[in-house]
Amino acid sequence: MRSFQNRLLDFTARGVRVAAISVDSVEINRGHAQKMHFTFPLLSDADAAVIRRYDLLHRGAGPKNTDIARPAEFYVDANGTVQWVNLTENIAVRARPEQALSAIDAAKGGRRD
Amino acid sequence: MKRKWNWPLWVGFIVAVGGLFSYEFFAQFPITRDFPWANLLLFAIGAALLMVGLFRAFGRPQLYRGKIFGSILTGIAILLFCFFAYEIFYVLRQVPLSAQAPRVGEKAPKFLLPAQDGKQVALADLLSSNGAVLIFYRGHW
After folding, report:
1. What is the pTM of this model?
2. Distance separating alpha carbons of residues B37 and B39, to the nearest angstrom
3. Which residue from A59, A98, A103, B13 puts its CA 20 to 30 A from B2's CA?
4. CB proximity A78 to B under 8 Å
5. For residues B34 and B17, is the Cβ–Cβ distance under 8 A?
6. Does B130 touch chain A (CB under 8 A)?
7. Residue pair B69/A67 in contact by the 8 Å Cβ criterion
8. Which residues pair with residue A58 across a beta bridge?
9. ipTM computed for the complex
């Protein structure tokens, strides 16, 4: 997520917001955002309701066998339609901002309106 | 005659231990996290040094120390490497399939969640201009 923060201007230049979602509490997110200098919203889905709705629940993978989110990245266009999704098969391998940016540019180029 | 200190055994062991415990450091950078080559390199250097040490200890025992502790250190290093390989090549790949996750062309499910400043953020707020990138992550608990 640090890499997304580093490229945040490239997203805002395209009119695209960046937001991150996890089961972390608002307090943890506040501390983490301060420590890492994250300026995009870290959203707290403490009961994993949204994570469940996106079918991204990783059962028992958190502390004391709690349910957490598996890593995943989406680009959702202004109409709310998913234009790009990255579901990693390895927790250590996450999407790079460049992948998301090229997906954004591809979605723009392919739009017919 | 006092036998010589067999330094490759100790240095090799320390390098192998470093291969395991430096993971948290190297995992900060995508290039060494996507594939843990830096850690594997440390393990390889450690293994090479341990081999040199063992060859010395067993080949010229009258000159070098380390038959017993060299074997013990090598055994521990092998166990550490097995643990590392299991975590990296098995545990990290145990990711749910997420077959029902929204696909390209589908509508992203709506949500309303609090941000770090306590304000509620809806998906619609994020999409207003030209859409949004949503990053789901495991969290820091």
Report:
1. 0.87
2. 5
3. B13
4. yes
5. no
6. yes
7. no
8. A68
9. 0.94
Chain A nearest CA to B11, separation (Å): 29
**Mean pLDDT of all residues belonging to chain B:** 94
Q: Kindly list the distances between the CA atom of residue A27 and the CA atoms of A24, A34, A42, A104, B96, in Å, as whole numbers in the listed order.
A: 8, 11, 11, 31, 28
Most A CBs within 10 Å: which of B25, B134, B140, as the mutation test of the A interface? B134
Angle at B91 between CA B99 and CA B77, to 5 degrees: 165
Q: Which of A79, A91, A96 sits opposite B95 (nearest CB)?
A: A91
Distance CA B22, CA B41 (A): 11
Residue A60 sits at the chain B interface (C-beta within 8 Å): no
Banded model confidence at residue A113, pLDDT cuts 50, 70, 90: very low
Which residue type occupies A55?
D
Q: Determine the residue among A34, A74, A84 to mutate to test chain B binding: the one whose Cβ has the most chain B Cβ atoms within 10 Å.
A: A74
